[in-house]
Design a protein that fits this description.
Length: 318
């Protein structure tokens, strides 16, 4: 939901949102096609028509206008209290009412009426499903330079989306590793800038970026602190620093590395820009001097490991 809300605010206007279980209704100026091409954690995107109870649905459907002549109805059940039969019944019922004015075409309709069945019925016109296969295809093991430290591409994509970076803006990852985060930023049309203290990672990121057709990435072998002198400031930073487990900290205590990282990111980022960073624990949040914590999203990796996807906004100087 945070990922969708961040994309919904790309126009610069904060989008209003209302959630109902796993359904999210956004009031945004951003085109639905942008949600479909950018989101990684959502399932589908529809143009919202109405949210109402099952009883109120008939009144709405009597006058509902659909684009084109043919339609089909699909119901996604988002709550386990709704049985498959509930979904089928609702689809048949809606189809019957709409078929008085439009023709049913189950195979190739002009429009698909998508109903998300949660607490309410959320009715919309389907704009697109989020295709998970390209994210799977870009998993670390399928890239020319592989290393198990890399985030899953869907999480890397979500992290970049949380920064609200738009096409053409610059995204920095000062701990780029194999380039998984920069890859997602580059594929969304952002200019990418990255660094890593380990030369093998720098070469690997360059290889991975060019393999996926991103030719303008600037990747340097450098310590995180060197970005403090970066000029001009970047629009966004998305990064996944070492946790002191498998990813190396070059023997530096984690607290000291994170303090340096926050200070460097603060200097490298433009005012009002966002830093989306994966932290191993909430205890590191107070190290983010000069930032305001926008949101924090725990992501459970396995039983004993949770990572915290944190979004910080750089404070305006007084
Ligand atoms: C968790 S990994 C990043 C993984 C990356 N997101 C990816 O997709 O592969 C952290 C990286 O930080 C690098 N690193 C450690 N200390 C650093 C420092 N002081 N400055 C810059 N990079 C550093 C490590 O070499 C490692 O590649």
């Amino acid at each position: 939901m945070a990922e969708a809300a961040a994309v919904g605010s790309l126009s610069g206007v904060e989008c209003a949102m209302e959630s109902d279980g796993r359904a999210l209704v956004l009031d945004s100026q951003v085109l639905p096609s942008v949600f479909v091409s950018r989101l990684s954690l959502a399932w589908s995107v529809s143009r919202h028509m109405v949210s109402c109870s099952a009883r109120e649905l008939d009144v709405f459907l009597e006058d509902a206008e659909l684009p084109g002549r043919t339609f089909r109805v699909r119901v996604s059940r988002l709550h386990k209290s709704h049985s498959p039969e509930d979904g089928r019944k609702l689809a048949r019922h809606v189809g019957k009412i709409l078929s008085e004015r439009y023709s049913v075409d189950l195979k190739n309709p002009d429009t698909e009426v998508r109903i998300l069945l949660s607490g309410k019925c959320h009715v919309g016109l389907l704009e697109g499903e989020i295709d998970r296969s390209p994210f799977e295809a870009r998993k670390s093991e399928n890239r020319p330079f592989k290393h198990p430290i890399s985030l899953h591409p869907r999480l890397a994509r979500a992290l970049v989306n949380l920064t609200r970076a738009s096409e053409g803006q610059t995204v920095l990852d000062p701990f780029c590793g194999t380039g998984g985060i920069l890859l997602e930023a580059g594929l969304m049309g952002c200019h990418t800038l990255g660094g890593d203290i380990d030369g093998r990672m720098v070469d690997g990121t360059r290889l991975n970026m060019s393999h996926y057709g991103i030719s303008d990435a600037e990747i340097r072998k450098t310590d995180v602190s060197s970005w403090a002198e970066q000029n001009p400031p970047v629009d966004s930073i998305a990064t996944d620093p070492p946790y002191g487990r498998s990813a190396s900290t070059a023997k530096e205590p984690i607290g000291s590395l994170y303090s340096r990282a926050f200070s460097a990111c603060h200097s490298a980022l433009k005012e009002g820009g966002r830093l989306a960073i994966v932290l191993p624990s909430e205890t590191h949040v107070p190290l983010a001097c000069g930032f305001t914590l926008d949101s924090m999203h725990p992501v459970r990796v396995h039983r004993s490991l949770t990572r915290y996807f944190c979004v910080f906004k750089k404070n305006q100087s007084k």
